[in-house]
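Re: your question from the hallway

Yes, I did run it. Sequences:
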Amino acid sequence: MTDKKIYSASTTAPVNIAVVKYWGKRSVKLNLPTNSSLSVTLSQADLKTHTTAACSSTFTENSLWLNGEAQDVSGARQTACFRELKALRKKLEDANPSLPKMSEYYVHVVSENNFPTAAGLASSAAGFAALVRAIADLYELPESPTELSKIARQGSGSACRSLFGGYVAWEMGQAVDGSDSYAVEVAPASHWPEMKAAILVVSAAKKSVSSTAGMQATVNTSALFTHRACDVVPKRMEAMKAAIENRDFEQFAAHTMADSNQFHAVCLDTTPPIFYMNDVSRAAIRAVEALNTHEGRVVGAYTFDAGPNAVIYYQEKDEEKILGFLGTLLAPEVAEWAGKYAKVTPEGYDNGSFEALKDGVSRVILTRVGEGPIRTHDSLIGADGLPRKR
Amino acid sequence: MTDKKIYSASTTAPVNIAVVKYWGKRSVKLNLPTNSSLSVTLSQADLKTHTTAACSSTFTENSLWLNGEAQDVSGARQTACFRELKALRKKLEDANPSLPKMSEYYVHVVSENNFPTAAGLASSAAGFAALVRAIADLYELPESPTELSKIARQGSGSACRSLFGGYVAWEMGQAVDGSDSYAVEVAPASHWPEMKAAILVVSAAKKSVSSTAGMQATVNTSALFTHRACDVVPKRMEAMKAAIENRDFEQFAAHTMADSNQFHAVCLDTTPPIFYMNDVSRAAIRAVEALNTHEGRVVGAYTFDAGPNAVIYYQEKDEEKILGFLGTLLAPEVAEWAGKYAKVTPEGYDNGSFEALKDGVSRVILTRVGEGPIRTHDSLIGADGLPRKR
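Structure:
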């Protein structure tokens, strides 16, 4: 008698925002990077992907639904993840013939983000981390998050870091097959739980250059890139790990800002040049600088991924200053907390420098360092093996 | 009997726009650069400083008027130029006692730009070149433009290049006293007279970071800067000289654009980051790229100095394409030539990418490669030794 059961597992996975940036691949196929990177995992209370993976002998193809829309799963990225996870499952089944033959079944995956995909918020990292974690749970794989991170990496490079909470390094590795290019925990969220983040969502047209295309253009044409990848980042990785170890926000902030700027500098040094920041992003940089100068110490650290959104890291003890200042700069409907904190107005505050923020920032997400993927019983897949109606 | 005569000499001097950028000083006092640079001298028909220098035993102090306004001449930059020029005059007088003792007289200098100083058009380069050339003429100094360029360099680094027309290199030199840091002609304007330039004047707030302060911040904090100065620019200087020698616009353009982008990249890699380009500048880059793609060859090359203005170099044979395209992008009152050329609309022309240009470009100056300083009998100083009323 054939097993017609629908097996399923569900997880949520977090977004991560790098403070030492990943930019450049030494292998596009395997998503092997030209330098190591380091990120902070953000709380799933604010940003998460919720994913259910199911398999059954009754399924007739691999399928993926994201936010209710069926997606193409024939791409190399998805295919690699499915293949590698099934191979690990197969090993278990070979060792224990009593296990259901899930490795032979098609998979259904249903994913939902609790934030707008289009906002440029590293949704692919959370998405692939959730996909890999959910299928690994479905298959009851014993592999560690670091082992699984090598699979998530092949889906989306930065996804490997979303398999851990807290402070996470992606060690670039040296092996041609990618076997030593994986994520490791630098410190859990509980080591430095005071780390918070304000994400200034900047309205912008669609990205003009995809990350993969942009990275490879930089690798191929930037005269400055090799120096960054080979000389600057290795030292910065060590300095950043030490800053996290010592909960030294000033060092953490200095490297975070310098690394973001250098990443965008090598983008600009690309032919043709790549721009992700715009005038609103620049106004956000000036605002953070003005506040740090006003306070006489570093209270905020900005960083920008491959888009115009500003992520401002700060420590909980400085929340009043950060949010008070943002409350003076942003439109009242955006800075919903504005009434809660005293306004902060630096000396020499030049409204003109920051006015782009009032029009350009459409939303602020307040969040903090958080945990890695969390298993849940909240299934997105119904008894028919299809996305549950919500 | 005392000589009460007012001696005077007048000159005009050009603006130059670098295609290999000067950024970084190894000596701030002597304006000695960390890398060589190369520029195109622009026609004085469109942009020039007109300067008269006079001296007399009756003058009671060194004075300088710029565009009708008395200026402070006590600064180190002006003082160095006056001192060095007087020293050269003194040598002449010592060798020939019959010469008037001009080296003992105070100097009056009157300068007028035929373009708005505030437009960010390298006015200090033309200004110091004209000042040095006019005083050298007043003193009847036999020194070559290269010798005089060492003096102009101390006024404003890039001024040394405005003592020549055509294509001009500033060789960085090695000597601690600056004796081998001077300008030389790479080729006269007549070698490649087809070189034209469209300057898109972008309205912007005052520069937030002065060039000198910005340069030194980059030298002190950018991890990528040394690689640019020591490894990239020396090769690019040779490549650019070859491109000019061969009138190879494609090579000239490739290096011009890459060098501008790299200069702004090291500005961005500075702590805190320095931004001179804005969203309008970026739209100008996208426009030039779109046109080059449309034409299937490089017809235009953008470059940006320490400000948002775009300078687009092109060859005369492509004027119709460049001006036709700019005519489609810019506001009609700015693109006054628009009726004269057919509009050029690239395939895949996305109005949204360029709309910042329509609002952001307030004026276009059409010019071309031109001559070095030109002596004139049009004196700006009256018989009373003061600025002539105009």
